[in-house]
Amino acid sequence: MEFPSLQEVPDWEYENRYAKAGCNPVIGVDEAGRGPLAGPVVVGAVILPKGFSHPKINDSKKLSEKVREAIYDELIEIEDLQWAVSVVEAAEVDELNILKATHAGMARSVEKLGVTPGMCLIDGLPVPNYPFPHEGIVKGDGKSLSIATASILAKVTRDRIMREGAKCYPEYGFERHKGYGTKAHLEALTRHGPCPLHRRSFQPVAQLCLPVDD
């Protein structure tokens, strides 16, 4: 008889493995915002202090917005927690493509920490030509505590950017859907056309940017 496995929660397994091998510091890296039609990609990078724990930290997608915001406010007040975020704007996403833009943000967020990485733990697949030693961990935000922490910092930073964007472009409802392609967003996009926050290389935004033939 098989019993259901316990819910997986992020822990120190990967961090401890590399720390014991002398690969210090170990940095967790994760992004938020690869899929939306509007707004930036934001990448977080984190070095956790030794012995750090938090009862609610998990993959940011599994947490409510209210819980993420509360954890974020706690994290930034922890003096020996080192963190940085990199914001890749929509125009650069269009210029590079979403994958290259995300990878660029992953490098910049680590660079902003101002340290020489021993190992970077990146959520997802390995990153081609990444300038630092790294391991890609599929679904890493549910396995590595530092990646999960980075995911929260990235997600909350991006959500706040989109709420600010909603003040400039209230007709799109960015404060609600954060730029994702919801029905309400698509209807507003069809009605008003793209705004400067939209990614011109993404469908259906790209279609709406085409010139109309006379």
Description of the structure:
The protein has helices at 13-20, 65-75, 90-96, 98-112, 145-168, 174-177, 183-192, 205-208; strands at 26-32, 41-47, 82-88, 119-123, 134-137. The chain has 214 residues and is of the alpha/beta class. The chain has one domain: Ribonuclease H-like superfamily/Ribonuclease H (Nucleotidyltransferase, domain 5). A five-stranded mixed β-sheet has the order 3-2-1-4-5. β1 and β2 (41-47) form a beta hairpin. The longest helix is centred in the C-terminal third of the chain and has 24 residues, at 145-168. The relative contact order is 0.21.
Give the gist of this structure.
By secondary structure, this protein is α/β, with parallel strands linked by helices.
**SS summary, helix count:** 8
- Order of strands across the biggest sheet? 3-2-1-4-5
Helix content: 25-40%
Strand coverage percent: 5-15%
Shape: globular
What is the alpha-carbon Rg in Å? 18 Å
Work out the count of structural domains. Answer: 1
Layout: helices, strands, pairs:
Elements: H1 13-20, E1 26-32, E2 41-47, H2 65-75, E3 82-88, H3 90-96, H4 98-112, E4 119-123, E5 134-137, H5 145-168, H6 174-177, H7 183-192, H8 205-208
Parallel strand pairs: 1-4, 4-5
Antiparallel strand pairs: 1-2, 2-3
Keyword list:
single chain, 214 residues, alpha/beta, Nucleotidyltransferase, domain 5, five-stranded mixed sheet, globular, disordered N terminus
